[in-house]
Write a structure and sequence with these properties.
There is one protein chain. By secondary structure, the protein is an alpha/beta fold. 30% of the residues lie in helices and 30% in strands. The strands form 2 sheets. It has a 4-stranded mixed β-sheet, with no helix packed on it. Strands 3-8-7-5 form a 4-stranded mixed β-sheet, with no helix packed on it.
């Protein structure tokens, strides 16, 4: 018989609880130490896209996945936080048509002008699995860029928030 099995039930339960507390304390210390002393996380990236388009290493590449089934359309994440200069990539994960349309009635003056001047206000439809749309926010005014995804399923709203650097 093992030594633990021969202990009275109460003693074994105390050891088990004590061991659990020690493990939880160690995890908490590790998490606090990482949060306080660790380096900031690197910007989001996509090495293949970075190489293909020659995007500098210091530019963040955010990814938004598009998918759906039946009448359901998914945009994940629905809200993307970006900084001026960042790139946002929309990627199709299914075999459906997805069309991104900016909500011009919700995007005021300089932000709408930016989209128009950079020819990003009316992107082409994404029509196959793996298709991607890459938008750049180099020189973009801060604020919300509301959009909707239309296609085979019900339209779904999303937002890109360009915040201060």
């Amino acid at each position: 018989m093992s030594p633990v099995a021969s202990l009275p039930r109460a003693e074994g339960a105390r050891r088990s609880t004590r061991a659990r507390r020690v493990r939880l304390a160690a995890v908490a210390v590790a998490c606090v130490g990482w949060a306080c002393e660790g380096p900031p996380p690197p910007p989001p990236s996509d090495p293949e896209l970075r190489a293909e388009l020659g995007i500098p290493d210091d530019v963040a590449i955010h990814r938004v996945d598009l998918s759906g089934r039946g009448e359901l359309t998914r945009v994940l994440p629905a809200v993307t936080e970006a900084r001026p200069g960042d790139v946002v990539q929309f990627v199709v994960l299914d075999n459906r048509v997805h069309l991104l349309r900016f909500a011009e009635d919700r995007i005021a003056g300089p932000r709408l002008e930016f989209l128009r001047e950079t020819s990003q206000d009316r992107p082409p439809p994404l029509v196959e699995r793996g298709a991607r749309l890459v938008l750049t926010f180099e020189g973009a005014p801060q604020g919300s860029y509301h959009f909707r995804i239309e296609g085979n399923g019900a339209p779904v709203a999303g937002e890109i928030r360009v915040t201060a650097p």
